[in-house]
Structure formats: C-alpha cells, structure tokens
C-alpha cells in the first residue's frame, strides 16, 4: 500500500481540499481502493466525506496512537493508497510523515507562504523521506521571484502541477464532491488530473526483479550430453 501525507503548519494552505481531490482522482484512475485518514482535530476532511453520496474514497477511522497498526490493517484489507491529512499537532505530523512514501507540502505563493513551507520541512525533519512542494492558490496576478523558488528548491522539488485559485474547489467541496466529479471540464479539474499523474509516477511501486534461474548442475549437463 502506498501512503501520501499532506503537511503544512500554516492554516489555509489548502491541504484538506487537495487531499480530498487527490483521493477521488486516484480512485477514478484505477489506483484504488483509496482510504482517507483525517488526523486534523478540526476534522474538515471528515465533514466533507460525511456529505458525500459515494462511499469512495473510504474514510478510515484512526488516531495517531494507532496509526501504524491501522495502516497495516488497511493494507491487509486490500487498500492500495492511503492519503493522510494532518493538523498542527507536531507528534501526529511526525507519525504521519514516518508512515509516508511521499510527503506533499502545499505552499501559498508569496514570500510568507514559501517561507512557511520551508519551515515545515525544518519541523518534520523528514530525512530519508521524499518530499515535494506544491504551489496552491496561484492567481493570474501572482508574482513569485526566482529567488524564492530557488530557496524553496533547496529543501525539495516543486511539483510541476500548479493549482490555481478557483471558486470551483470551494463549490465542489461544499457539496461533498470534487472538481473532477463535475461534468464540466474546468482548468481546476485538469490541474488535479496533472497532480495525480505526477504523484502516481513519484510513488509508483518498483517492479519486482525476477530471480535468475539456477544454472544446471555439472553432472546434469553431462547426462544431457
């Protein structure tokens, strides 16, 4: 089972919206079953899920103290992808990061947002973990300096899929849906599709290498001759 964890200490980074959208898109692309895990005490992800008409993605009931065993049970039950949304609890964040194959850190454009994203890396200290920054809430008037992006890149790569500010996200989330479940092909939908494509490639399982076949014993070779 693959595990993706969203982390961002500043509020309003959009991680809950992105977690929900990524989970739905992954399921639609055949990467499921997908399970959502809500470790944020504000439970915004749980509230969104409770409004859904569909049971997919699954919502796994867990807590920080039982995260490891619960993830193992999900894997045994056949879940292929778990997406974890975190809050501000440092211990819960560390546990969710430790379990992750990929850590996504949403960053709002602008010096403050980029600085906060970089400070999140210092908080989690995710040595050995694959981390990716994700620009979220970008507007047509957004100006991001090359120096800011260069400073951010010192801590990890930036996802090529950039999420733009759009009322479509809030409208869909308010009804327990996502933009990829709305018939209209909007720019927001294409951005989520691009994000999942990138994430899927980053956490693609390594194909098993078949063991080399054993060479025939010397006496067997002689007998065959």
Describe this structure in words.
The chain is of the alpha/beta class and 225 residues long. The chain has one domain (2-204): P-loop containing nucleotide triphosphate hydrolases (Rossmann fold, 3-Layer(aba) Sandwich). It has 9 helices and 7 strands, in the order βαβαβαβαβαβαβααα. The chain has helices at residues 15-28, 44-50, 67-76, 90-98, 111-124, 146-153, 167-174, 187-202, 218-224; strands at residues 2-6, 34-39, 58-60, 81-86, 102-107, 131-138, 163-164. Helix 5 links the parallel strand 5 and strand 6 (131-138). Helix 1 (15-28) packs across helix 2 (44-50). The radius of gyration is 21 Å and the shape is globular.
- For the biggest β-sheet, the strand order reads 3-2-4-1-5-6-7
Task: Estimate the strand proportion.
Answer: 15-25%
Given as residue ranges, the uncertain stretches (5+ residues, pLDDT < 50) are 219-225
SSE succession: EHEHEHEHEHEHEHHH
Q: Round the Cα radius of gyration to an integer and report it.
A: 21 Å
**CATH homologous superfamily label:** P-loop containing nucleotide triphosphate hydrolases
SS-derived structural category? alpha/beta
CATH fold group: Rossmann fold
Task: Reconstruct the topology from this structure.
Elements: E1 2-6, H1 15-28, E2 34-39, H2 44-50, E3 58-60, H3 67-76, E4 81-86, H4 90-98, E5 102-107, H5 111-124, E6 131-138, H6 146-153, E7 163-164, H7 167-174, H8 187-202, H9 218-224
Parallel strand pairs: 1-4, 1-5, 2-3, 2-4, 5-6, 6-7
Helix pairs in contact: 1-2, 1-8, 5-6
Describe, in short, the structure shown.
The chain is of the alpha/beta class and 225 residues long. It is built from nine helices and seven strands, in the order βαβαβαβαβαβαβααα. Helices cover 41% and strands 16% of the residues.
């Amino acid at each position: 089972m693959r595990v993706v964890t969203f982390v961002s200490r500043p509020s309003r980074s959009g991680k809950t919206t992105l977690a929900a959208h990524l989970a739905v898109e992954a399921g639609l692309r055949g990467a499921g079953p997908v399970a959502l895990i809500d470790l944020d005490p504000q439970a915004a992800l749980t509230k969104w899920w409770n409004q859904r008409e569909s049971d997919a993605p699954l919502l796994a009931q867990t807590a920080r103290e039982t995260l490891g065993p619960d993830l193992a049970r999900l894997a045994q039950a056949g879940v292929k992808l778990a997406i974890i949304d975190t809050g501000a609890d440092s211990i819960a964040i560390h546990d969710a990061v430790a379990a992750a194959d990929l850590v996504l850190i949403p960053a709002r454009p602008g010096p403050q947002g980029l600085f906060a994203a970089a400070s999140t890396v210092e908080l989690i200290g995710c040595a050995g973990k694959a981390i990716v920054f994700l620009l979220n809430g970008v507007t047509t008037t957004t100006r991001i300096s090359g120096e800011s992006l260069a400073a951010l890149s010192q801590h990890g790569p930036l996802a090529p899929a950039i999420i733009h500010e759009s009322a479509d996200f809030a409208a869909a989330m308010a009804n327990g849906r996502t933009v990829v479940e709305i018939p209209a092909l909007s720019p927001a939908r294409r951005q989520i599709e691009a994000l999942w494509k990138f994430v899927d490639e980053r956490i693609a399982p390594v194909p098993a290498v078949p063991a080399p076949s054993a060479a025939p014993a010397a006496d067997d070779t002689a007998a065959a001759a």
